[in-house]
Amino acid sequence: MGSTGQSHPRNAQHLSNIAYNVRQTWANPLLKKLEDQARVPMFGDNPVELGMKDREDLLLERLENDPDYVSKFKAAFPSDSNPLSILNITKALSSFQRTFISGNSAYDRYQAGDLSALSASAIRGKNLFFGERGECFHCHGGFNFTDTILHLGTVFEEVTFHNNGLDSSRFVSPNGGLYEFTFQESDRGKFRAPSLRNVELTAPYMHDGSIPDLLSVINHYTNGGTGDGTTNPNRDVFVRSFSLSESEKQDLVEFLKSLTDTEFTTNPKFEDPF
C-alpha cells in the first residue's frame, strides 16, 4: 500500500542477502543496482509508493531540518560539498541494505558440521528439496537459494526468470512479469525466483502474494501449477505434477523452516532506530 492508498500489484520481497541479487525486483531486467532500486519507491508513480516524484526538494528539506541527519551525512560523505543529496541518500540506503547478511540458520549450522542442527524431518525434507523428485534446487539452489546471484566468485552474470504455473489471471497487466519489458508473449508470467532464506517468515508467497502459506506453495508445485497454469505454454519445465505424501510435504515444510536465521532476524542493528 502506497502513501496515497494505492495498492501495489506485487508482493514485497524480503531483504535477506539482497546484496547478492543480480536483479533487484521481481521482473525488471534493467534494475541491477540497489542504488537504482532505491529510487523506485521514492520517485516511482506506477504505482505510487512514497509519493516523492517531483518533490525532491521537499525530501531534502525534511532531512536538512534534522541536525542528526545533517551531521551523519557530513561524516559519511566528507569530501562532498553537498553531502545531503538524492544521490547520497540512495548510496546510504543501499549501503545499509548490503549489511542484511543472513547465514546462520539451522541449515547453515548443519552444513558447517553441526549434525544436531536439523531434525530428522528437516533432513528428509532437505533430501526432497535437493533431489530429482522435488527438483526445487533448480530454481532455488546455491548458498542463497535462488538461481540469480552475484558474488566475488561469479564467473558470469546469469539472469533467469520463470513462469511457475500460476493461474493466467495472475499474469494480466501490470503483473505480466518479464513480458512488461520485452513484450514477448513467451515471457508473460515470468518472474525472478526469490531467495528462500527466512522464507518461513515472509508469507504470503508468489509475486502477487496469492498463496498464503508454505504447505499451499508445496501443493501448488506438486499439482504442477494452479488452474489453467498447469497447461500454460510458458510454464517452466521444472514445474510439473509429482506425488508427495502428506508426511513428505511436512518434511519439506520443516526443511524450509530450517532456513530461518534468528540471529539475523533479531539483530538489534536492524531495529527501528526511532
TrEMBL record:
UniProt remark on cofactor binding: Binds 2 heme groups.
Q: Where, per UniProt, does this protein localize?
A: Periplasm
Which PROSITE patterns does the annotation name? Answer: CYTC
Key word Membrane present: no
Reported modifications of this chain: Binds 2 heme groups per subunit.
**Which cofactor names does the annotation list?**
heme
Read off the Gene3D superfamilies from this record. Cytochrome c-like domain
Checking Pfam families in the record gives: CCP_MauG (PF03150)
Query: Signal: is it a keyword of this entry?
Result: yes
The entry marks the following residues as binding heme c, namely: 136, 139-140
> For this protein, what is any one GO molecular function term?
heme binding
Q: Which residues form the Cytochrome c domain?
A: 120-260
According to UniProt, the name of this protein is: Di-heme enzyme
**Source organism of this protein record:** Leptospira johnsonii
